[in-house]
Amino acid sequence: MAAKDNGRSPALRLETVALDCVMVRLFDTIDEANMPWLLAATQRLREAFADVLIDLVPSYTTVMVHFDIARLSLSEARERALQTLEALEPADDEQGETHVLPVWYDVAVGPELETIAARANITVDEVIRRHAEREYRVFALGFAPGFAFMGLVEPLIATPRLATPRKRIAPGSVGIAERQTAAYPGVSPGGWNLIGRTSARLFDRDRDGYSLLRPGDRVRFEPVNRDVFIRHGGDTTALEERR
User: Which end of the chain is more exposed for a tag (fewer CB within 10 A), N or C?
Assistant: First the structure.
């Protein structure tokens, strides 16, 4: 079953993840054009599964549906998902909020800035410009509370994950992994290439939904100097790396 063609129609497939979990796969490759379809599928599935829904996890190409197995069998869940997404139409691409995150781009908090610049044969300032001039879509939340996977980074500055992940990364650290970019909401391990740090509070238990960023949102990174970063509440402390 495929959705109505509207420039980039998904070829929908269902994959069984567990007895109480199915994966709805709409695409096989990552593309910003996927987002309207994923948002539409997420909304439909949320409404269709309603009170039997335990969790719904959209990603770059899929939506995972975790349901209450005591109230819905796997076969019933698969049938409900298929019926729900019959003749799927893309959502309004303008939905979602736009966020501007101030970022202090500096080797003091972005140790991979020089590595990325050398790899691309450009200057550090050019890496910063290229990263900050794009508007990124939030594709998914995961890894840690409030951690938003965003894309797509310009191919020239796309960089593989570190061969050896760091054990401690400072909150607000902005990084690149392949063509993804993200900011760490709290202290955590991580293998992304760090290029700066934001003062934005990405995860807050007192905020509705906890996370500042949600799938479908747009994000722009705004370069600021160290003084502005500190004035906005940014932390310049370098956490010790324990390998």
Answer: C
User: Which run of H or E residues covers position 14?
Assistant: strand 13-18
Residue 56 covered by a domain: yes
Q: What is the mean pLDDT of residues 81-90?
A: 92
Residue indicated by tokens 């610049």:
117
Lowest mean pLDDT among 147-156, 208-217, 231-240: 231-240
CATH number of domain containing 60? 3.30.1360.40
Those residues whose C-beta lies under 8 Å from the C-beta of residue 111, and which sit 6 or more positions away, are 194
Instruction: Name the pairing type of β-strands 218-223 and 98-104.
Output: parallel
- Number of independent structural domains in the chain: 2
Long-range Cβ contacts of 159-163 (<8 Å, 24+ apart): 159/112, 159/115, 159/116, 159/119, 159/193, 161/191, 161/192, 161/193, 162/112, 162/191, 162/192, 162/193
pLDDT digits (tens, 9 = 90+) for 112-130: 999 999 999 999 999 999 9
Same domain, 169 and 224: yes
Q: What is the pLDDT of residues 181-200, one digit of tens each?
A: 999 999 999 999 999 999 99
Q: At what angle do helices 35-49 and 74-84 cross, to 10 degrees?
A: 130
What one-character DSSP code corresponds to residue 237?
A: P
Cα distance between residue 18 and residue 21, in whole Å: 5
Q: 102 and 211: one domain?
A: yes
User: Burial, 47: exposed, middle or buried (Cβ in 10 Å; 0-12, 13-18, 19+)?
Assistant: exposed
Per DSSP, the three-state class of 142 is coil
Give the helix/strand (H/E) hosting 64. strand 62-67
Where residue 95 falls among pLDDT bands split at 50, 70, 90?
confident
